[in-house]
Predict the structure.
Amino acid sequence: MSSELSITQLISQLREQLQQHNYQYYVLDNPTIPDAEYDRLFHQLKALEQEHPELITGDSPTQRVGAQPLSAFSQVSHEMPMLSLDNAFSTEDMQAFEKRLYDRLKLVDDQVIEYACEPKLDGIAVSLLYEDGVLVRGATRGDGSTGENITLNVRTIPSIPLRLMGDGYPVRLEVRGEIYMPKQGFAKLNQIAEQHGDKPFVNPRNASAGSLRQLDPKITASRPLEMCCYSVGIVEGGELPHSHTDILHKLATWGLKINAEMAVVKGSTGCMEYYAELAERRNELAYEIDGIVFKVNDIGLQQRLGFVSRAPRWAIAHKFPAQEEITRVRAIEFQVGRTGAVTPVARLEPVFVGGVTVSNATLHNMDEVERLGVRSGDSVIIRRAGDVIPQVVSVVQERRPEGTEPVQMPATCPVCDSEVVRIEDEAVARCSGGLSCAAQRKEALKHYVSRKAMDIDGLGEKLIDALVERELVHSPAELYRLHHRQLASMERMGDKSATKLLNSIEKSKAIELANFIYALGIREVGEATARTLALHFGSLPAIRAADEEALQQASDIGPIVAKYIVSFFHQQHNLEVIEALISAGVHWQDIEVSDQALPLDGKTYVLTGTLELMSRAEAKKQLQALGAKVAGSVSKKTDCVVAGPGAGSKLQKAEELEIPILDEAAMIALLEQLNS
Ligand code: D41
């Protein structure tokens, strides 16, 4: 009997520990133990529960997932309606909102209203019902009076407690908030979708909605969702504080997540200051927001104000300028890039979106054109979030005019008329004209003079276009033969700017090897790869002489880039370009390659458990590239163990020997640090 009791105690102790760590990690974003430790506690609990299934309860951390898929969602009618929010779009709207409050509350000018401010998360509004502290139901807002029962799905979201922490919570407590997907998780989800050839989600909001609409909670569990609470509904058998912000802080003490940006301000002036400050930081936030919600903070005032037609009089959402707008496609044209890639571009009726006027949007490639089904004349939704280039999100089919035609990839290059070829399995079609194509020449020159390449100041895109069109420059080396007279005669150039440009062309002759390699425009060789090549091989002849295998010895150079590099140096005209540049006076200092000590020289690493972010082979390769030896078993000679989920005896041994242990994320951080 006594041993039975101790197991019950042990189980409840483990559950409490796990809940606490879960709270630290997902709600406070401040983990206090390594992941490996958490996994160990979790597996310990799981094992105990397997031995004593009669002790399993629904609020155990092991029971978040595991339910059978549903065949349909049932409906939930909200006991208290979930209200909607009025919108404001300007300072005037905000002042009018405040004036209504003053009128209704019969306030005089020297009385100040206190507002709670919080970002308006762009997700899905939901309701959570806790009875005696246990999560018994999760539901979508739906139309405000009826939503869908998504209990099994909300249970999988780690920032939602299955049981409230602490005490003092009402017997029945309905918590309302927004389920959303942080930007980073969204990007990763789409990256995986792309790798699997699945259709990506258009935005984090759609991804959240799609994830909650899954009948199989295992799928929801795999999606990086979070929940942030912003109000309460039913409160029975208990009391809550008398201001909105105090209520939310109370919710936080029970383990619920609230927004860290929440603040209290005075008057509509304070609201506008908060708005401006957050609008500025909008793109730095980890999640997307579409505005700010302002709420009268005093619950007594809220009650006096009440609501009209399902929206409270005491709250308003001040929206940011839209990041999505509708506009019309005037034409779909094809642009030729530096590597000959022929890219479809949508020319748009100019539209103000995300704070700028957009009149072009890349369509990337024909696969994308087909996926969107976009045609010239279509109305499309354009999205521009932050600094991201504008994208065509979707076509508004209902608005398609008559007589539109599907887009066809031209058979010949729109610039030079050479044949356009599409290699099987590649999404991109390319102009086969090479440097005989003026478009490719222009782009190659633009790349050559760019800041991270030869850094030639004063040679803008328009001037390059003109120089190529007038046939004054065909290849980079010819830049060094330009005369003052020629330059000064170009449009918008004068005597002074020509002199200045000649100076910067002259100055660019002394260059660093890495920049020169980058300037050559070898496919897939970006700034970082160029630097790696320079440091690893030290000289241009050495790079040119390296075969694919030798190239892959350099860190971060994979088989595909290696192929492109070899192929570049096998093309006669590329060698001629290099020769001409050297003859024109371009020069650099070779780099001495010693058998430099690598940062992990002499260190022995052991990998154990499952790696989730990179393959074991990749981790091994990267560690080796930094000089480490990667061994199969743990001994006194081991310097570090990298342990993923499911790690067993090797991890145990490492602990016994007090060998440093990293989880996968920490190893990746280390690799990044040592490679930077
Ligand atoms: O972040 C949000 N999306 C958010 C939505 C928020 N921070 N506060 C909200 N407050 C309310 C009231 C004032 C009605 C309690 C809301 C919403 N409502 C809301 N979300 C969807 C419909 C209404």
